[in-house]
Amino acid sequence: MSDRSGQAGALNVFTPIRPGEEEALRRYLSGLPRGAASPLARSNRTHVARWVIIDRLPTECVPDPDRLRRIQLLFTSSFDGDVRSYLDELVRLLTPEIPDIWGRCEGFPGLSVVGALVDWLLDHRVPSSFFFAAYGKTTLHDVRNALAARDQTIAFALRAQDMEPQARLDAFRRAFP
Amino acid sequence: MLGRATALTSLNTLRPWGVPVLRGLYFLGPYLPFLLKKLRQLSFIHFARWVIVDSLKGEDFHHTHQFFESNFNGTWSQYIDAFSYVVPRELNAVFGFAFGWPGPVPAAPFKGFIARHEYPAAHYYSAYPEATTTMILSALEVRPRLDDLRVRARSMDAAEFDAAWQRFLTDVQHHL
């Protein structure tokens, strides 16, 4: 099992949706703000994440295919650090949304008992067999800083190409103190 | 799709005799440099995972399933094409045990297989949707060199900095 690549972790959680709640959950998730306004953007440790509703299992060419008893809500994330502290933080950050998401799943323990939801999520975790991260040694904080530094470098190089040496040095020191 | 970031989520059912082979492959995967090298060759993948699913809470499976997830930049069609033509042998290794697997080439039946086994994300998040994998890897090359120049520039005169700046640009030009 491999849920780690460098310092990056992979999380896969399948939770059964209460019968009759599937469409409301799908609508709620689809209606969440996207991009920087996504509730997941509150986390400084989440690189990528998704909620997916698994409403069927494959049947094509499968002899006697499996059928789901309950439609499943799948949450996956690629994140920094260890999984328990990540989930502790995520549960705290997503508190306003959680009743409308995992609150629609069977066995949801509520938010009143500290740690109960994290235990429940970990109990529904399925470990990855193979996890690939192109830059798994790098935290989200460092990815963002590196991207900003690259952008600043490009902008400075364009701005400084016609400067005299002393002006270029002065401008560099101001841009990169 | 979110900015340049695209999510792919698929699930397929495995032939019973393929399950132990796949487990062995995934166990050895991190120790097989050529496999990671091939994945890095597909320079648009940020994160990907393969998950063998024997059971879920409250479910009773008699088959074993495989969940595959990828986070990449570019379009779905470009991604599948690249997979199909760059790593066909590796694709056969990881999907060849799935019922209904048509093979990696030609790309059209492979695309159909992925599409029929795909589940759309109800909500997808990327912390840097406008950044490609190549941009991030380049930025990680630029950053330490810039930090080094930043420190050294504090004690340089204009002529010394001019030479150092030109060397820096030559050094990082492929990453800008």
Description:
The complex is a heterodimer of chains A (177) and B (176). Chain A has 177 residues and is α+β, with helices and mostly antiparallel strands. Chain A has two domains: 4-123, 2-Layer Sandwich (Alpha-Beta Plaits); 140-175. Chain A has helices at residues 22-31, 83-93, 116-123, 140-160, 165-175; strands at residues 4-5, 8-16, 46-54, 72-80, 130-133. In chain A, helix 2 (83-93) packs across helix 3 (116-123). The radius of gyration of chain A is 22 Å and the shape is elongated. Chain B is an alpha+beta fold and 176 residues long. Chain B folds into two domains: 5-116, Alpha-Beta Plaits (2-Layer Sandwich), CATH 3.30.70; 133-175, no CATH class. In chain B, 48% of the residues lie in helices and 20% in strands. Chain B has seven helices and four strands. Chain B is elongated and about 75 Å long. Chains A and B meet through strand 2, helix 1, strand 3, strand 4 and strand 5 of A and strand 1, helix 1, helix 2, strand 2 and strand 3 of B. Strand 5 (130-133) of chain A pairs antiparallel with strand 2 of chain B.
Blueprint (SSEs and pairs):
The complex is a heterodimer of chains A (177) and B (176).
Chain A: E1 4-5, E2 8-16, H1 22-31, E3 46-54, E4 72-80, H2 83-93, H3 116-123, E5 130-133, H4 140-160, H5 165-175
Helix pairs in contact in A: 2-3
Chain B: E1 5-14, H1 18-28, H2 33-41, E2 45-53, E3 64-73, H3 76-86, H4 88-95, H5 107-116, E4 121-126, H6 133-153, H7 158-172
Antiparallel strand pairs in B: 1-3, 2-3
Which structural traits does this protein have?
heterodimer, A: 177 residues, alpha+beta, Alpha-Beta Plaits, 4-stranded antiparallel β-sheet, 5 helices, 19% strand, B: 176 residues, 7 helices
